[in-house]
Each structure stands twice: as C-alpha cells, then as structure tokens.
Amino acid sequence: MSDTSQDEGQQAGRRGGQVQLGRHVRIDTSRKLPALSTDTADAYPASDSREPGSTLYALVFSEDNPPREEVIPPLARIEGQPIVTPVDWGVVPWDGRGTQRFAVVQDQPTGEVLAANSDAVLPALREDQLIERLVKPMTRVLRDVFDRAVTHRAICAQNVFTGDPATQEMMLGDCLAHPAGTVQPVVYETIQGTQANTIGRGPGDPRDDLYALGVLMAMLLRGGNPMDGWSADDIVMQKMAVGTYSALMGRTRASLKLMEPLRGLLTDDEEDRWDIDDLEMWFNGRQLSPKQAALPNKARRAFRFNGREYWSAPALAHALAQDWRNGVAVMGSGEIQEWAERSLGDEKHANRIHQIIAKSSGQSDDRALAQLLIALDPRAPIRFRSMAVRVEAIPEALALAYNREGERELLTEIILAKLPQRWMEQQVDRSLNTARLVSASERLNSFLGSTDPGYGVERCIYEFNGGWPCLSPLVLGQYVNHVERLLPALEKRAEAGAPNTEPIDRHIAAYCIAWTDSQTIERIASSTGPRQQDVMRKRALLHLLARLQKKFGPKKLPALTTWAGRFASDIVAGYNNRKTREKADQRVQRAVDNASLIELVNAADDPELRKRDAAGFQAAQQEYEQIKQEIAWLEDGGLTSDANVARATRNVATAVSALVSGLGLVMMTVLFVA
Amino acid sequence: MTQQQDGRVQGDGQKGRSIWQWLALAAFIVPMAVFLLPTTVVAAFLLLPTIVALMTDSTPGRSVTVTVGLLNGVGTLPAVMHLWTQGHYFAQALSTVGRAEFWLIAYTAAALGWGIFLGLPPLLRQYYNVATDTRIKQLRKRQEELREQWGDQVTGEEQEPDATNDSSPNAFSR
Question: What is the predicted ipTM?
Fold first, then answer.
C-alpha cells in the first residue's frame, strides 16, 4: 500500500474522535467511560449500525496489557445469557501518528455492580433470592462458557452486576480485560490459586470458576466477606485449617438444601469439588449428601517453624515457602525428613518426601527446597523463592513477567530446573492431563535452552500464548497480534524512519516461528543471530522477510524493501566478480523500485549465481597462482638459463644440420642425374 | 631438468649396452668395412671430423656428433660417388683421397656443422631474452585483468574468509 492509500485507510478508520471497527461498529473516542474502564484498558462508548439501540462499549488495549484474545471468539458465540460478551473486536487506528490499538466492543453490563471495590459492603440475600438471582443464571452462563472450552476466571462481587430489573437475574461482567485470575480478590481463589502469585494463577479450569461462584454465594448469603482485610497468607492458613466452607460461612447457617452446593463448590479437594453437571443435577432436584471438608492429614506431632506449630505437610510447605531463607536452613537440618517419617502418619507420603530429598542432594538449596515443597504439598503451585506459579500458568506468567526482570528470571529458573516435571511426578490426581503438561514443559525447557533467535523466553511467549501481541520495539504501537500484520507494521516503522538496526530481532524471529510452524522459517530465523557470520545473518533476514511477504503479503512494501535493501547491498558486495556485482546491484535497485522483498532476495542472493561466482573465483585464483609461478620462473631465467639455451642449441643445431644436409643431398642428386 | 633426466636415461642405456650387443655390431661392421674397403678408406679420411666429434661429444643425445656428422657425411658423398663411378678399387680410393677438392668439400661441411653448434647459443640467448620480456608483459596484463574482474582477493594475499562461500549456497532455499 502506498503512503497515500495508507493515510486514506487510517482516515477512513478514524474520523473526528470516531474510530471505525469493521463495517458496522463505531467507537466514540472523545469521551471515556470511567465506570467501565479497567486498569488495563480504557472504555469508550460504541455503537453498532446493525443495532442502533444497543448499549455497547469498547475496551481499548495496548501491547502492554493485551486482552485474553483466545477467549473472545468462544465468548462471542454465547447469546441470550446474563454475561458481558464481545460483539466485535479487532485492531483499530488510534491516533494520527499511526498507532494501532486492539479494541473489543461488548454489551454494557446491566444494573449496578455488587461491590464497587473490595471495601464495599455486600448486600445479604435470602436463600431463595440467592438461588433465583445468582445461582440459576450463573449456572446457565457457566455451562455455556465451559462448553466452549474456556474459563471465566473473573467471578467476584466486583464483577457481578445486579442485572435486568425485570428478571432480577444477576449479570456476570467482563473477563477479557485482565489476564485470567488476576482480577479476583484472593478470597475467590482456591487455596492453590491463592498460594500462587497473581501472574501465576493462569486460566485454570472450570472448577476454579465454580469455586469462585461458591465463594460469592457464601458472601451474599452472609452479607459480606468474613476475611475482609486478611492477608493472602492468613486466608490460606485459615482455609487449610478449617476448610473453605467453614472459613467463609463461620457460624452462618445455611439450609440443608443450599448447604449441598455450597459444600460441593467450596470443597478444597479438586477431585471432589462439584462440576457444572453436579450443579445442574442439584437444580433438577437430585439430592446429594453435603460434602464434608477435606482437610489435610493431621500429623501426630506438630512441626515447629518460626515459632509456630504446623500440623500438616501442606501447611508446613506453605510456611516454608513464605520464609524461603529459613526454609532452606530447616531443610538442611534434616528435621523435616525425620518429622515426615515419624509423625506424618502417611508412609507413602513420607517415602515420597524421603526420595525427593535424596534425589535433590547436590542441587542448589533453592532447587532442593522447591522440590521438597512439591513433595510436601503436591497440589500446591510450584514455589521457587518469591515466585509461586501453577504449572499450566507458566507460559502466560512468562508473558506477563517479560518486562519484570526478577520474576522473569525466577520463572526461567523454574523451567530450566525442570520443576514442572518434578511437580507432575508427584501428582496423584488422575484427572490431570499430565502428558500434555509434560510435553509443554519439555518444549519450554528446550526453547529456553537455546540462545539463538527464535528461541528463549520470546519463543515461549508466542508459542504458548496465542494472540499475544509481538513485543518487538520495532513494531510496538502497531499491535501486531497476527503474523499477517507483521510486515505492514515494519513498513510503517520504515516509513517513520528506518533505524540503524536490522528489521528482525529476537521477538520477531520467535513470533514468525510460532505463527508459521514451519521448520524452514525456524532454520532461517535462527540464522539471524549474532553468532552467525555477518553475511549469513543478512541473507537469513532477507529470506525470512521474503518468505513472510510471499505467504502473507502485502505485495508492495516500498519503505521496508528500501530498509532491507541496505542489507541486500552488503550481500551483493560478497560476490567476487565485479560484473556479477554490478548486475546484482542493478537487480537489487530494480527490486527496491518494485517494492518487492521477494524480488530483492532473488536479486541479492541467487543460489545459482553464487555457485557460479564461487567456482569462477576459485578458477581465477588458480589461474592467478599459475601465472605468478610462471612469471617467477621466467624472472629466475627459466628461458635464458644456460641449461635451457644448451638444450635449445642441441635441438636447433640438429634440426638446422639436418635441413642443410637434406638440401645438399638434393643438390647433389640433381647434379649427379644431370 | 627433463633433458637432464633424458640424458641420464640415455647414458644409462649406453652403459647398459651389453658386450653381446657390441659383439653383434662389430660382427656386422667389421666384415662390411673389409668388404667395402675402398669406401672405408675414403670415409675414414674424410669423416675424421665426425670421428673426433664422436669421441669428444658429451652432450645428451650426442647432438654435436649428429650436427657435424650429418653435414660431414653429405660433404663426403662427392668423394664416395667419385670412387664408385671410377672403380671401387683400393688404388682408386687412394687416388680419391689424394684429391684436395674432396677434402675441402668434406671438411668445409664439417666446419659448417661445428659453426652451427657454436654460433647458435648467443643467438638463442638473445631470442629468449626478448621472448621472456614479452611473455612476462602478457602474464602481468592477464593478472591485472583478473584482479580487476575478481578483486584483490584473487591474489590470495590478505584473503579474508569468504562468508558467502558456504558449503550450501542455497541453505535458505530448501
């Protein structure tokens, strides 16, 4: 696209404070909607020409805080349910400087939010109100959500609305604006979710959403959060000590009918927790006996740590993780092993702890303690120094922590230490798809094991987080969330003034590999690293760009081709033959004029021409060397030497003598005959 | 060098000639010389320069002997022809040997042979000097052409490793 047509496109997308999304949706960027804005995205009013009366709003995201793009299409297919669902989405031009943003247009939630913030007082509902207004609609909503193989992970009083006054059904709010599980207050998280760092909670599974629903039910039933103001540590310890149900309900009495789903949803044993089928069956009248709280096995003797007594392995593991330095010291003393063998009362568990301590000898203290914590509480997230992350959340956590150096390093260490693999070895929950997780963990490990472009943390981000925008500084502000958008974004960068760098960096290399899933692209991209010879690297980057243009277009990229042309000239300079260089230079110039990267690579790096040039150069070198030797021989008197003159004299004298003799014979013959 | 080797091979061949070969040669030549005794007498006197050359020649392939011998032989022919036409007798042979013009022809021819052999080296040296200069000029011109066409790297001096000459020139095209 030429400059003019691009400008026209941007003007078409953005006119006077109005941004057009697709053919029908228009976003009014002249005023914000503070009530619907989040800390990751600003909200603006929006309208859809197909439904003029609809109340829509748009959330606008930058690359720094991208939405959960993978859940948008599934959620958009949900219709007629009390949940905020996306209507339209896509990249939109944002300002006159060519910045692009990702916008998601959704239906505005109906009614007031239950709790504007965590300090707000929650209304108390009667049991029948709770069931009719919350549990029934949420069951329908969650059934639709789970059927689309996604989770909501933002079920909390701050994201549930009073809903339509006619039906009184509450409405579930947006779940795209934040990474999964990061917006819920910790009390809505399971014990394992609470133990994890905010970025380490991950999308989880339906049981996490159902647990959060259970927590909300309990709060609305008793009219508030009993653990309001508690630290995450205290919440975990309380839930571990008495179980979530008791921790939330306290002395509040629920009817036997409502106690069933509350206990079922709030049970801390994931295997025993109610799923959506159980909830639907309960609505259909099937009676299930209320589940008792599944508390951790109590040891015969408490383990004393930091002045407090811990009666179960999970509680001890949690305490050790909270005070890592002392935890390492206690681990080294051997007291834990002794306590597990003598007091835990679970021989198998004690054996596992013993084995893992034996296996981890020789490793660093941090790695050894991380493994010990896994053995003590296999269901808990992986904990490593100040990082706690659920295994399935590691790729997303890497993406979220990319610009937070400390957290990124810890996550990298977790992967390189193969802690996810150790975690899976300790799992007894058969519902876990460990094969998938093992495979993913191995791939993460292999990606981090290489420093070549196309690997490393960047590859982990793009390979496992579909829709995560490319974070390359070269395309920042263009919101490249699909490989098709990469070259146009680089073109814009070039138009704004191509930097003195190469147009491919580690992010772009990893992004291309992850999106194309092509071994050829992977091989080429990995050749763009600084370890490669300069010309090889430049050849690789030209080939990569050309392949992208061939596969994804657009046909004309004038500014980017000019940018890449600099590197093409360096490649052409590598030809030995002057005429070949001149011809290739002309072809490169023609390719630049035609704005084609494909032509450019063919002009600069013709394999057949390179082969001929190399062969010709070798022959020329040989010829030059032969000439050099011949000159040296001549200068050393090769022809004028005594030996050569003597040899020539012998030959010439013999020949002249024979000739004269022959003539003499002829003459004599003539005379004799005459 | 090649010539020296050739000469050595030839020398070795002569050295290696067995006594039986010499005997076979003598068994043919001696009766023939006796049978053609008048001719042998004439030849013995007039081919004296060739015989001297044969005895003193140490060049590879005995080129002096060949050069002198060919011309000396042709110069001896008028005397031999005269003997054969006047009668192949011993007296006639002595008469022929006694004629000065036959000596003049034979020895002048032999002298021409010697002259050729001794006079050629300065001429050839001069020729080779000119040829050397011309050839060096041609070669230097060709070197210049190669340098212009392929760059200074073609000389092999200060040659940097050529990154583009990888073993797989189309590594990215597969």
Answer: 0.79
